[in-house]
Every structure is written in C-alpha cells, then in structure tokens.
Design a protein that fits this description.
Number of helices: 8
Largest sheet: 6 strands, mixed
Shape: globular
Helix content: 25-40%
Order of helices and strands: EEEHEEEEEEHEHHHHHH
Strand content: 5-15%
Number of domains: 2
CATH architecture of the largest domain: 3-Layer(aba) Sandwich
Number of strands: 10
CATH class of the largest domain: Alpha Beta
CATH superfamily of the largest domain: Peptidoglycan recognition protein-like
Radius of gyration: 18 Å
Distance between the termini: 33 Å
CATH topology of the largest domain: Lysozyme-like
C-alpha cells in the first residue's frame, strides 16, 4: 500500500495511546478541486485536518500521524462519546460533495480506502460498529460521506455495519406510513444504534429529528433520503439495533 506524505500542522501536540483509538470516521472533502481541499487541510488558518486523504486517482496521502489528534470531526457525538476527534482516525475522500455536484466515488478511491481501512482496523483493533460517517456523528451539520458512499459494499469486508434485510422486503415497506408510537420507537432505535437524539438549543425538535432521519437514511436507506420515517426505515432500525449492541 503506497502512502505519500503531505503533513498538516493542524493537530494536537499531545500524543495519544493506541488504545484511545475507538473510531474511524469517513468524510468527503466537499470542495470543487482536489488541490483546494489539500490546501485547506494543510493551511494553519483553516484549523481543519485529517489523518489520511484519498485522492481522485486513489493515491493515499498521510497528513497527520495517527497517534495525534487531527481536527476533522468538530462538534460530534456517538453513544457516550463526545468530541470524537479525541478517539478517532479521520479519513477524507476527495469528492465535491452536495454543494458542488456530488458524484460517485471512483473505483480506485474505494479500493484504496478498503485497503487502508482494513490495515487500520487490524493495527488499532477498531470495532466494526465504530466505522462511521461524519453525518452519523454530526447529523445537524454534515451530510458526508453521503448516500453515494458504498457502505453496503464495505460492510462485506468488515468495514462498518449494514443491515441483513432483503431488497424485496424493504421495497414493500417503502413510503408506507407508520404510527406515532412506531415513530417514537424509531428514534429509540436510533439512540440504541448510537445517534444522539438530544436536540440542541438552537434547533427546533422537529427539524432536529428530520436531520437525524436524513443522516440515518444516507447511511442505511440510500435510495430515498427524504427525512420521512416510513415502515422501511423502522424495520432497518430494528434490524440494526442488534448489530450495534
């Protein structure tokens, strides 16, 4: 696995222990040009960085040594963890993102990310259920890596979790209404999976719950991201609770 170096100065200078590493977080760069993304991640004024960047051609770039905290997650939470920068490895994948004509990730990017992730999971003993997207840990702020990220494919190789429901069952449940009680159960399931369901003061509760639903759909129901809870979302959440606990 060929890795080139382009170090960023945007990191915490205190070294952490390998056993503090609990998560891998995937991002997209969300910028029009790859060169702009690299410039931002290495610019001290931006105060953002990552441990690794996957370029459009699949090249892997190391930016911050893994045993130092990079600034990639921001305000974030998952289960009982807050500020996930402290406990995670951040990987950025070059992609213009939702603001600039979001596109599929290239085959070379996917293969490089697979090799890198498997290496990191083995080296730092990362649990499969702790491979997450930025939108999982910051659903009110972020959409990356988005609904075009191949989570189902990666799960086959032990990189992240996926549900075990067939497409036939899911399609039959899609867009079918659920009761208020089932909606409450859906959000209880999200909490059990790891999503924060505590609404921040600045957001109305309905808006917060919709953003949380969209984050869940971007990860686990990628064909339809509409923020509306239907029977399909409910049964996926029920299936996942067992896998994340």
């Amino acid at each position: 696995m060929l890795i080139t170096l382009n170090y960023s100065l945007n990191f915490e200078t205190t070294k952490r222990k390998p056993n503090q590493l609990k998560f891998i977080i995937f991002h997209y760069t969300g910028m029009k040009k790859e060169s702009e993304a690299i410039k931002r991640l290495t610019d001290t004024k931006s105060k953002v960085s990552c441990h690794y960047l996957i370029k459009n051609n699949g090249e892997i770039v190391a930016m911050v040594p893994v045993l130092y905290v990079a600034w990639h997650a921001g305000v974030s939470s998952w289960k009982n963890f807050k500020s996930l920068n402290k406990h995670s490895i951040g990987i950025e994948i070059c992609n213009p993102g939702h603001d600039y004509n979001y596109k599929k990730f290239s085959k070379k990017q996917i293969q490089s990310l697979k090799r890198l992730s498997q290496f990191l999971i083995k080296k730092y003993k990362i649990n499969q259920k702790n491979i997450l997207g930025h939108s999982d840990i910051a659903p009110t702020r972020k959409k990356d890596p988005g609904e075009k990220f191949p989570w189902k494919y990666f799960a086959k190789f032990g990189i992240g979790k996926w549900h075990s429901l067939s497409n036939r069952i899911l399609i039959n449940k899609r867009r079918k209404k659920i009761s208020l009680l089932d909606k409450k159960n859906f959000f209880k399931n999200l909490s059990k999976i790891g999503y924060s369901i505590k609404s921040p003061a600045k957001l109305k509760k309905d808006q917060f719950l919709k953003l949380n639903t969209c984050a869940f759909q971007r990860r686990f129901r990628q064909e339809l991201v509409n923020g509306k809870i239907d029977q399909e979302c409910l049964i996926i959440s029920q299936n996942l609770v067992k896998k994340f606990n």
